[in-house]
Amino acid sequence: MIRIALWLTLFVSLLVTGEAFCLGSHIQEDPKIRVKKIMDTEENIIGQKIVYPAGQAHIISEVITVPPKTAIPWHEHLVPMYAYVLEGEIEVDYEDNGVKTIKNGEAMIEAVNLPHKGLNKTNKTAKVLVVYVAATGAQVEKIMNKK
Known about the structure:
The protein is mostly beta strands. It has one helix and nine strands.
């Protein structure tokens, strides 16, 4: 009985210290891992406060590829949208609210309920990761009939 108790004590202590069975013990922390904060904000790119839609949360993510010298049609977002430029750069025209350019490695929270258009004025393809913070069943974007 004492022998079983000793083995049980050894087994439990090895489990607690993480030394037993080597499960997952090959994973080590890597001092080369770095975290770079890209954005920390309560406002979108034109200064509107970010407001989450009511209802069941629903996240939609897309990668948008914009060829060189191409315009994205006038549109407006109906829910908050995060954009991160993976390649190239995009210029966004907000008319009276100005023109903003986001480049490779930069991010923004897009304006909500405000017509705007995007432009890739460069000779390189642009790729943008977008993440919509929506509610289930909500429309996230509306294309405008504006030239």
